[in-house]
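FORM 7B: Structural annotation worksheet

SECTION A. Query
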Amino acid sequence: MKKVLRVLGIGMVVSLFLCGIVFAQGVLDKSVFENAKVNWRQFEGQTINLLLCKHPMQATFEALIGEFESLTGIKVNVLALPEQQFFERQTIVLTGKSSEFDIVMSSPMLNWKFIPGGFLEPLNAYLEDPSLTDAAFYDIDDFFPMTINASKVAGKLYAIPYQVEAYTLYYRSDILDKYGTTPPETLDELYEVTKKIKAGFDADGITDILPFTCRGVKGAGTVNSAYLSLFSSYGGKDFDKEGNPSIYSETIVAMSDLWTKLIRDFGPKDWSALDWYDVKDAFASGKAAMIIDADHWGAELEDPAFSQITGKWKATHVPKGPAGIQSNIWAWSVAMNAASQNKRAAWLFLEWASSKPVMLVASLKYNNQTPVRNSVWNDPEIVERTNAWGQGTCRPIVTKNLEEYAALRWTPNPNAFALSETWQEQLQRIWSQDASADEAIKEVQKQSNALKTTQRLATIIPSKKGLKTLEPLF
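SECTION B. Predicted structure
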């Protein structure tokens, strides 16, 4: 495998402090790691291979891998692929029990796909082995509980979280002010505010700004974001405690009808083709008045090099329903291939990459947001930067999501990816008026029953303190 070249920038030295950690332009101080009670050189000469999805997290790893190699003497090779190609290659490698890659990027939904076949390595034994992990240095309790628990099934930890997103409603504060409206708090209010903005645009002859937009492409990430957050806020559950599909209800039908009507009446005509980057680009370029998507976009939206709306936007929580504010999450993580021939060396990389000092520089220098460690999110410089997002409105929403509003809303199921794609296909049918909301949600219920696995992994119950993982039910 061809080794990926990495170039580390050298520039003006800056000092950052976290438990005595000092960096020089993003280059880690090796002594911080050498002071940990871990023999970082115990696998010197070994090689590990990483399969990564192209993403800011992947870019951060590649920029810093030279630091790990210098510390450990372990050579690291990387293959980074676009998202869809990554998903396909990951499936081939893991289900084929290939030892080609030792570490893969993952997420809870991906973990569930591979755990039943034994394709992912449980990490508890490595975390608890004092020859591999300095518990005080690593400080597993520094992670937000929501992110660690989302990476567990039946008490076993299958991945280390690295970056998490919950969901928020971004809006152009100057546009809402101009048309005399306030940020919506419910889906009904969102429809009415959008309607008022559209009327204002029509009166002013504005045709190049959408009142509202969001993702619509058929894919796991679409349902996972705005829609599943709304579904949960209306009391929806994908499966009940007995493992039976429970998606269909009159309440969910009405919510789904209003959601797709909002997009049909005031959103993009090509909604079914839009992915997250289309939504972000539209908002950042001033072509959308409101969006719902990942809550970590604040840094880019406040960057004049990327955004044309700096100082003109704010954030608020996703619309609440009868069950309150119930944001879903997506958490990128790193996992170990059960077929790896270099598991202990691979663990050293996982420990190093997700440590406090690496995650801090990842967030400060490489803008890897939102960090999953409490100490990093609350680092003074991170606080100062994020307090500036959205005229001071964004950081409080992200913090509320981390601590209270957000949780993993899916029931762990190896078929969650397939179900989410089927679900979005039916939402597209409502939007295009090829099916009524009642017909479409009934079809989702039907398909979820067909996809229901006999290897359900666990039931996860969300709470304000995180997620509680119970033993498998069937």
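SECTION C. Observations
Residues 1-26, 453-474 have pLDDT under 50 and may be disordered. The chain has two domains: 23-163+331-390, 167-328+415-452.

SECTION D. Sign-off
Analyst initials: ____
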